[in-house]
Amino acid sequence: MAIMTAPSSLPLIERPDKSLTDMVLQTIRDSIVNKTLPPGSRVSEAKVAAQLQVSKTPVREALLRLREVGLVVPCERGLRVVQPSIKSTRDAYEFRAGSERSSAFFAANRADDEERGQFVRLAQASLRAAEAHDGAAFRQYDRDFHHEIALASRNAILAQTVADSLVLTSVLRERDIAPSHDSIACGEQHVEVARAILSGRAERAGELMWEHVLHVMSLVLLADPAEQESGAGDT
Model confidence over 99-111: pLDDT tens digits? Predict the structure, then answer.
């Protein structure tokens, strides 16, 4: 398989509230998500450092973190952006399902009234966006819904794990699938999860979230299987 090289320019995302390593990490991560760094492209520590006009140290630290997340993987000449495959996609979603089951369970026990109401509002907004065939709005409400529940778990490690899983599953094909009638079913599942959390039914909330994430996995795995098979050797 031919490995593409990274593009000549990656604008550094400057955030005064973040460390240099965090800014470098966010820049590389967002470049992977928006395909500025396309699947399979080689990521050179020296080249990225030159593009961002920073030393190699924050780039090295950022790439180590992105490797832990699964967004970059080892290759013969260093690192490359992960390529979608059936196995990598299934692995990522199954891991995400377990993490989000826990986040929904703990959120049902620990979220305050304002947060519980926010879950319901986001779930309903995602359903309305799906019914209106507004893919961009649906994806935004979908991400916000999952992120907010993870934060309400009051477990920083769990919240970071869910955030990383959301990015990884997005890169592994979910971002490339056009919203369809199935988005309505996903919106309806959001509403069910939100209502379970609202009423404090922790076990039920966790179970519903688990089923929801695995449902999304099944949709992703069914979409364009030929393209996923092209990277079937990835792990």
Answer: 999 999 999 999 9
